[in-house]
Amino acid sequence: MDHQSFYAGTCFDAYRHQGAHREEGDVVFRTFAPSAVRVSVIGDWNGWTETPMEKEYDGNFWVCRVGEGLPDGTRYKYRIWRRDGSFRDHCDPYGFGMELRPGTASVLRTLEGFPFGDQAWMAGRTDRKNGPLNIYELHLGSWKRKADGSWYSYTELIPMLIPYLLENGFDCVEFMPLSEHPCDESWGYQNTGFFSPTSRYGTARELMALVDACHRASIAVILDFVPVHFAVDDYALWNYDGTALYEYPHPAVGYSEWGSCNFMHARGEVRSFLQSAAHYWLEEYHFDGLRMDAVRNLIYWQGNPERGENQCGLTFLREMNQGLKERHPTAMLIAEDSSAHPGITAPVEAGGLGFDYKWDLGWMHDTLCYFRMPQEERKKGSDALTFSMDYYFNERYLLPLSHDEVVHGKASMMQKMEGLPEGKFPQARAFYLYMFAHPGKKLNFMGNELGQLTEWSEGGELPWALLEQEEHRQFQRFFRDLNLVYHYHPALWAGDYGPKGFRWLAMEEETCLFAIERQGRGERVVFTFNFSREPGELTLELGEGVKLQPLLDSDNTVYGGGSLWEEQPLEGEKGCFQLSAPPCSGRCWVVTEE
């Protein structure tokens, strides 16, 4: 680690120097605590008594060497003495492991030497801009649980999760934050160990094994990363050396809306800490991308445009993204951003923030608003369905139906559909087909594919028993078939970010009838939708000499609908097609030459 780079906020490898590392058979402990009076390391090997640390470099770093042959799993902390004569015992900010809560000690972990077998995957990896990207967002602790309610480990999930993803047509999994966190209910978004995979599910090497297994099965893996704030627990980063070392000292900007501490991105040491953490997950674990949480709160002070832009936060994002892309050009950098700030996915050299993708939260909000509307209101409310294409080409968008939409009284995705329970399933099928017809990469939270009727809770597993009911099995089958149609038809993803990849064929607002054409790599796919409860018919001009080869019908009887889907191609008359549209349904066809 270059110390001047660390102070300047341009360092991406601080974790290779700080923390606990094996060197020539010993373990060397280093920590950055410039305002400490003295620092000691305490742990299992010395009975939690103090082994003094010495000042290093400019006196702001502390170091000691322990030669007792400490094994992996050894617990330790730093005892940091303050100017007022008091002390706090802190976990290691750069520690590679922590003990299971309610324990708060760091744990020795060896990262080197894991036998990754994903060389072919890493060599051929892309950022997916010109390919399919269908993300399954997952909370590891509540996807499935053991019979006694305990968690599966990272490695125990491999034979269950990977076949499930493959069978259901997902090509990418996104893990909600796996950095260590003390409170299950935070879902990992309030961290205490930014370099420590949570011990809830095992060790660092077990997590490496999970990522490696996904890659061997051609599944990309994205990790949620939290660069905005951290947990207030006093054993972690808060007041680390007796002063506000990582956080703002003033409460007006020091505490976030979630009750956590905001990182002070004006400090070079803090930027180096976070950049190094981002690089660490991509480099050491082979993650294929990072979804960065709460980007709005880095763009604006406390996420509020009225308080003005946070220039230090913007500089941090630009420099971090640029540095990560230099080191990992094929990794995906994804912004969870609810602001209207321009240039989120524009290159840094062009004045943008350098992300590959931005979550289209406007599309999510407006589209769900449309499907909540009573049928009569939809006739006057189609702007909620179509407005997204008015701004779509301003950024590279990803369409998210994430965990945030199925918690805190917001209802499950299925519950959001208007009407009585029996009418929700056909609407949900049409809704999801519309999602996949719309340009942009896709993300769905676990359980969406089951037609889940209750909100998600981290306290238990998904309601897998739903699949004992026919309507939920049929819905899951529809979701799987939709994923496969998306994967195998380049018209649905190759033209995501070019104006030739999408066009409206019909927008009949009063009858809630719509039609879309997608194009890509020489393929054309046509979608028709009827979002009313009355049968309808659409007339489409598609050009002479073409036929329509059926792909998918959301009203097919195999999915619980009422239509017997014809598999024979449809022939128009001089390029004109009369297409029936059952109530609350969507259909799609490949356009072929006669």
TrEMBL record:
UniProt-listed CDD domains: AmyAc_Glg_BE (cd11322), E_set_GBE_prok_N (cd02855)
Keyword set includes Transferase: yes
Pfam families found in the cross-reference section: Alpha-amylase, CBM_48
Active site: 293, 336
A GO CC term assigned to this protein in UniProt: cytosol
UniProt source species: Candidatus Flavonifractor merdipullorum
Entry's EC annotation: 2.4.1.18
Keywords: Carbohydrate metabolism, Glycogen biosynthesis, Glycogen metabolism, Glycosyltransferase, Transferase
Pathway involvement of the protein, from the record: Glycan biosynthesis; glycogen biosynthesis
Residue stretches making up the Glycosyl hydrolase family 13 catalytic domain: 137-485
InterPro entries recorded: Branching_enzy, GH, GH13_cat_dom, GlgB, GlgB_N_E_set_prok, Glyco_hydro_13_N, Glyco_hydro_b, Ig-like_fold
Name of the protein in question: 1,4-alpha-glucan branching enzyme
Gene that produces this protein: glgB
Biological process according to GO: glycogen biosynthetic process
